[in-house]
């Protein structure tokens, strides 16, 4: 291996030499002659950086080599030998936390781009290398290595001036003036995309987000108008852009050209040819899931979506669609298996997944309009595993409770996500059983009479979403019946629909989204090491720390709720007739039984905490709405009524404050008089405790 001085001398000679042969051949000859690559330079720089840090910290190590020389060589190489392709602009704006800006090392390793400094949107005339600090970078959690196939990240936001803003602060020059040109540029030159999340999965297709100006430049209308919601509208088949796409031999999915349009050609070999488009002015980003994002500048939109794509998945539609896509991406239905007869590799079932074929539910698990119900004439009732929507009767309030000054709302962090952890669900078709013995380890639907269960009237019943006591036999998911046994009551099923093959299908989904949620909260200053008082203070101001990251957090929460809801997507459109199959039924992920299992476990978890709180503190809730519960309180803080041991630690079993899924945070504070007044009018205080009108988390 060449010595350090020989390394410097050889590369200096290359950088000072003027090429006389055609650039590609000349560069290849020079690289071979020097015996060095950008990768070796990058490795040398990283090694030297660590040596500098160790030496400055006083470790017994000789003085490191010239860090500035390595950096100078890297910068010179990148400036002298830019590869043809998209131009990359390193902006001066800081990257979001969790999305580090491209360093000089990373830039040198990306052959598709040359680096130019840009503080203003004016097109730069001459390329300049980005200056790099000589100070060693602070320690950060290890980041996965960038995929060399996608050097510019998973997505870009295109403005009307031909700039495509990507992740990490990069900006690409996009010369496309039509949708077809944009698709071809994206696949051939942009360097956009994302690697698969599972070894048996597929790489994420590149996403191009169009601003209103970009849409108009490409020949699209700025807005889609009609009687339906804009997210449901599509370009007509005779629109010039749709015809243009067809003439170029590209295809649109059955969803047509709407706010989220997929343009593709059939796979040739192993190469997918597919681009996802999102049109901002067509309401592609729902304000409830992406608060304030549509009104941001293009670069900021790219940062928000880039962090979401890095931590969750590249968006392919609404957050609900992304939540469902994430399940499949983490548990692909197939994998390559070797045919023992021929020795060839073929597509086979991936154990633990939902497979490739849709599966009809048992009649009680379906919806009333489902073909298995309509065709069979089923009249035996349905599962009613929904989120809580309960208010305590006003006549059950005590004088002591009414004299307390405040009503305090607690909200469980991503309660559905917490319920998905280690949740065993069915993977095979349901089998029908008569008078089976109840087994809490078998997922399924059980017809059981739980009307004999006696519980405190100041608590909601754990068996119904309304909190009212059951009046006779009804269908319940396994977790609900198991909780009746946990409370000491015998369960004797009349019949059941059970599944023989089971697995924790949602485990990777839970782990992936939990990490995304916790990491994003930590970036907003809400970390696991905070005590309860500091946690409440951090949560009070976390949305003001960074609007972009706050939007990412909202999108992650919407991904959880929407993904669970998509497991039982109902038919849409006024022309639908009961008994017809609707498009969602063609998905293996149309699984209402899995949705019921998540919601049943979440509701049982809530009731268990309510019961433990009554035992620990003697307090009973005023109302519950899904994952939000309202308690009467002597003060304005949860610290005034939550149970703590003498040591100051939270008592196990009740509600605990914290930033992880399943733990609680403050939802809102109102006066007790306000809460009682709403209860007397028949309203739920939990819906309004935050100051607005909360949306019931039914997983829809």
Give the helices and strands, then pairings:
Elements (H helix, E strand, L loop, with lengths): L3 H13 L6 H12 L3 H19 L10 H14 L7 E4 L12 H6 L5 E4 L36 E4 L4 E4 L3 E4 L5 H10 L18 E4 L1 H6 L22 H8 L3 E2 L7 E9 L2 E9 L18 H14 L7 H12 L3 E5 L6 E5 L21 H4 L14 E3 L7 H5 L2 E7 L2 H6 L4 E2 L4 E4 L9 E6 L23 E5 H9 L8 E4 L3 E2 L3 H17 L8 H14 L1 H20 L25 H26 L5 E3 L2 E6 L30 E8 H9 L4 H4 L12
Parallel strand pairs: 1-2, 3-6, 6-9
Antiparallel strand pairs: 1-5, 3-4, 4-5, 7-8, 8-9, 10-11, 12-20, 13-21, 13-22, 14-19, 15-18, 16-17, 16-18, 20-21
Describe the structure.
The structure is a single chain. The chain is of the alpha+beta class and 700 residues long. It contains 20 helices and 22 strands. A nine-stranded mixed sheet has the order 2-1-5-4-3-6-9-8-7. A five-stranded antiparallel sheet has the order 12-20-21-13-22. Strands 15-18-16-17 form a four-stranded antiparallel sheet. A hairpin with a 2-residue loop joins β20 and β21.
